[in-house]
Amino acid sequence: MLPPELVSIIFLYCIPFSCQWDTPDANWRCPAPLVFLHVCRTWREIGLADASLWTAPHLRFGEYYLSKTATHQRTPAQIENFLASWVARARGRPLTLTIHGDMMRCLGNVRAGALLARYASQVKKLDLWLTGMLDWTNRGRSLPNLVRWPLLEEVEIMGADNFRDIAYAFSLAPKLRVLADNEGVLSPSFGTIPWRQLTSLHCKLTRLQDCVEVLQQAEMLEDCWFFLDDGDDDDRLDDEMDTVEHTRLRRLFLDGLNDGLDAVLPLLTLPALKILEVAELPTDLDSVLDFLERHASHLQELHMHQLLVKSLPPMPALTKLTLTTKKEVYTGDLFALLQSPERRFLPSLERIHLDRFHSKERGDYETMARALADRWHRSKGCADIAQLRSFTLLIKLGEDEAIEDFEELLSPVVDLKAAGVDIVVKYWGSKW
C-alpha cells in the first residue's frame, strides 16, 4: 500500500483541468475527485482529508437538466447542496469556480445570483460560460447586493451577452488582475470595471478607438490581446485621439484589425514591449514597419506574416521569430537572409517557427535546410551570432499532395537535431 501522502499527490494529478460543459449530467458522473470517495474506505479517507482536492468546484448546466424526461433530474436544492458539500471539503481554501451552461434557467435568476454571492468571498478564479440571462444589479433582484470578491484575481467570461449590466459585476474586486472577455461586451466606457489594476487582458472589441482607450486606462497591463470583431468599414479613430505611452506592456497581440493597424500603431509607444504578435497585416505595411523600427531595440519575440521579413529593421535582441505564410506568397526571404554574408541578420535569433507552410517546391526545402545548417555552423565560430536552439516547421498540404524524398531534402536539419537543436516538423495532408 502506498503512503497516503503519495496517494494524495496521485489524486491531484487526476483532477481534470476542464470538462465539456454540455456533457449530460456532467456533475453527477463522478469525475475526480468525487470518484475517489466510491472506491474503498481508504481512498475515501484520503480524499476527504486533503482539502486541496476540493478547491476547483465545477457546475455544468446542459440540456440534460432542462429535459422533462431526464431520469435523474436534479432539483435546485440538490444542486445547492452539491456545491455546499464540495466547498466545505475545501475547508476555507481559495476556490477556482467554474460554472457552464444555463444556470439561471435551472435555478432561477434570484437563486442563481444568491449562489454566486454566497461563495464570492472565497473565489480566487472565476470561469463563467453562461447561456442564460443574469442580472448583476439590484434592479433584477438577482443578487442581494453588489457582490464583493475580496480574493478574486482572474475572470474568464463566455456568453457575456447574456449578462445584464455586467459592468457592475466586478467593481468590488480589489485583487482582480486577469480578465478575459471573449464576447466583446466590455467597453473602456464602463467606469466600474477596474481597468487600472489589470495586468492581463484578453478582450474582443468592436471599435478601433477602444484599443487605444483601454491602453490609456489600463496602465498596469503587461499582457494584452485585442481582437477587433465585426468592425464597421467606416470605423475611424477620433482626429484628436491622444497618443499612448504605456511603460509596462510587455506582450501585445493584435488580431482582426487588418487595415485598422494603420491608425492604431502610430499612436502607440511601448518602451517595455518584448513580444509582438500581429495576425493579419494591413494593405499598407509602412505603419507596421515604422512601429517595428521604433521598438526594434528591445523586441525579443515577433509573430507576424512572412512578407515583412525582407524589410525588417535591425533587431539585435530578437530571439524568437514566428512566421505565417499563405499559399500564394511564400518568398523564402528569411532563409536567403540567414545565408547572406553581407550582414548578420537577427544576431540573437535562437528559435524559428514557421506556421502554415504551403510550399511544394523541393528547392524551398533545400534552401531552408542549407540556411539553417549554415547559420548553426557559423554561430559556432562567431560570438556575435546566437546558436540556433529550435526550429519548428508546420506544413499544410492539400489532398493527395506529397513531396518526394523529403527526408533527404532535410538531411542537413537532421544533423542539427543530432547536435542538440530541437527540430519539429509536422504536416497536414493525406499522404507524405
Largest sheet: 14 strands, parallel
Mean pLDDT: 79
| SS elements, strand count | 18
Structural class: alpha/beta
Q: What is the number of helical segments per DSSP (H or I, 4+ residues)?
A: 13
Write down the overall geometry.
globular
Write structural notes for this entry.
- With 432 residues, the protein is of the alpha/beta class.
- The chain has a domain at 300-432.
- Helix content is 27%, strand content 20%.
- It has 13 helices and 18 strands.
- It has helices at residues 4-14, 41-49, 63-66, 76-89, 103-107, 109-119, 208-217, 261-264, 286-295, 333-339, 362-380, 406-409, 411-418; strands spanning 58-61, 95-101, 123-130, 134-135, 154-158, 163-164, 178-181, 200-205, 223-228, 244-245, 251-255, 268-269, 275-278, 301-305, 320-324, 351-357, 390-396, 422-428.
- The strands form three sheets. It has a 14-stranded parallel beta sheet with strand order 1-2-3-5-7-8-9-11-13-14-15-16-17-18.
- Helix 10 (333-339) runs parallel beside helix 11 and helix 11 runs parallel beside helix 13 (411-418).
